[in-house]
Each structure stands twice: as structure tokens, then as C-alpha cells.
Amino acid sequence: ILDDPDLKDIDPTVLKHCHAAAATCILEAGKHKADISAISTCLEDCKLDKERIEQFCTEYQVFKPILTIGRSPLHITDVSWRLEYQIKSNQLHKTYQPSYLVTLNVENSDSGLHPDVSFTCTMEQLQDLVGKLKDAAKSLERATQM
């Protein structure tokens, strides 16, 4: 953008701020699945002229499917785990290290796909994860009681 000859007379700092504002507007519109009327109203409130608003909305419509894919959070539907016990390393050194292979079955409400998320952790890491989940559950419980 800074190399565009049509924009050479504009202060680069102002140009960067405008670019950041436009990118934020586009991402937020995609995040909230905003329709053209909501976007037009917002841009009219920002005192943009009709021609620019129409051009913006036309371009937004073209890229809207890309912006709205995968915006719903994943929901954990099930958890499975198994204990793994590593006896030797690649260099044949004895290690005797237990670890846990945890698999989270997740669901995305937008696509309906059910990808699994798997990770390996030590007992300490698993205990830390369980503690954080308990803290999150308590926070949610307190929030719903208010």
C-alpha cells in the first residue's frame, strides 16, 4: 500500500491507521456475520460517501464466505485417554517416563465436522489442565448464579 503512487501524498502513519481500521471493520463484520444493511449503516455513520460504501459492500460480499468460516468455537463432546509408558529413547537409553495421550472429541456447530484433538502430556501437565478446568467450571458456576 505504501508503494502505491496514488497514495504517495498521504502521511504513511495515517495510511497505516486507515488500513488497520479497514481490516478491523472487515474482520469484525465477518466475525458477527453482519449483513450488507448493517455494514452500510455503520459506514454511513462514519460519513463515507455512497459510492465507497457500495464498493466496500460489493467486495465484502465476494469475500464474506471466507470470513465467516470456522468462527464458532469448538465444543468438547467426549474425552478419552490412555497411559503411555516410554521405556527407552531413540538412543536406547532407559527413560521409564509415563505420559498420557489425551483425545478430545470436538464438534463444530457451523460445519458439523467432528475432528479429534489429541495431545500428549506428563502427569504434572495433566494435573494442571484438570485444575484449570475445575477453576473454569467454578467461574462459570459463579457467573450463572449472579
Automatic annotation (TrEMBL):
<dbReference type="InterPro" id="IPR037355">
    <property type="entry name" value="COMMD3"/>
</dbReference>
<feature type="domain" description="COMM">
    <location>
        <begin position="75"/>
        <end position="144"/>
    </location>
</feature>
<dbReference type="GO" id="GO:0006814">
    <property type="term" value="P:sodium ion transport"/>
</dbReference>
<comment type="similarity">
    <text>Belongs to the COMM domain-containing protein 3 family.</text>
</comment>
<dbReference type="Pfam" id="PF07258">
    <property type="entry name" value="COMM_domain"/>
</dbReference>
<protein>
    <recommendedName>
        <fullName>COMM domain-containing protein 3</fullName>
    </recommendedName>
</protein>
<dbReference type="Pfam" id="PF21672">
    <property type="entry name" value="COMM_HN"/>
</dbReference>
<dbReference type="InterPro" id="IPR017920">
    <property type="entry name" value="COMM"/>
</dbReference>
